[in-house]
Write a structure and sequence with these properties.
Blueprint lengths: L1 E5 L2 H17 L6 E4 L9 H15 L6 E5 L3 H8 L6 E5 L5 H7 L8 H15 L3 E4 L10 H13 L29 E5 L2 E4 L12 E2 L4 E2 L3 E4 L7
Parallel strand pairs: 2-3, 2-6, 3-4, 4-5, 6-10
Antiparallel strand pairs: 1-7, 8-9
Helix pairs in contact: 1-2, 3-5
Amino acid sequence: MGFARQLSSTEIFEQAQKFSAELRKENQRLSNVVMMGMGEPLANYDNVMEAIRRIHNELGIGARHITISTVGLAPRIRKLADEDLPVGLAVSLHQATDEKRSSLMPVNDRYNIAELIDACRYYIKKTNRRISFEWALIRGQTDTPESAKELGNTNHHYTNTNTNTNTNHTNTNHTITNHTNTNTTTNTTYTNTNTITNHTNTNTNTNTNRYSSQRPFVSCQRYSVESYQRI
């Protein structure tokens, strides 16, 4: 597996456009979009922002119903805060100490938890919007009582941010497909923003319940989209 290139804004937009068209055939509508999956959206910043504007303008999906999920690129979080576009932000935290988070997510060596939280504070202050924090439950690593205590201590230390940990993942790189909840009426598509090559397994599916700090973020139909290049 290796990185080939960033997706263009059109390639990102077309993923949402495809599922929007399919839902219309069933007299439904695509109402939420999450930028996540096989790539880091904020590393492909300009193309992602252009795609979001097209999704908003051409598909009629409000910016508040579009969420960007990031591993925590602090400077780009600040840049996003300065945009005149009220999209949602979800941060993949997954560990509550720098040592453990760096072992799981090397990006933490560049932007540690303190710097990440500082950028999140800036985002909240600038946009007056809450942030969702994502936590993957990995057996023996992030699902222990010790991890919960560390997260609680982190949340207590950074009192200006709200943390929710009701996410059930098994792997942070997995995508979500065919999750059904009969009590909801929302259709969400998860779009990929980077291109990955040399995959031997095209898709791994896991059922996930994601919650924001403001309200439940669930859907009755979730689509994972395959848009990486194979060589």
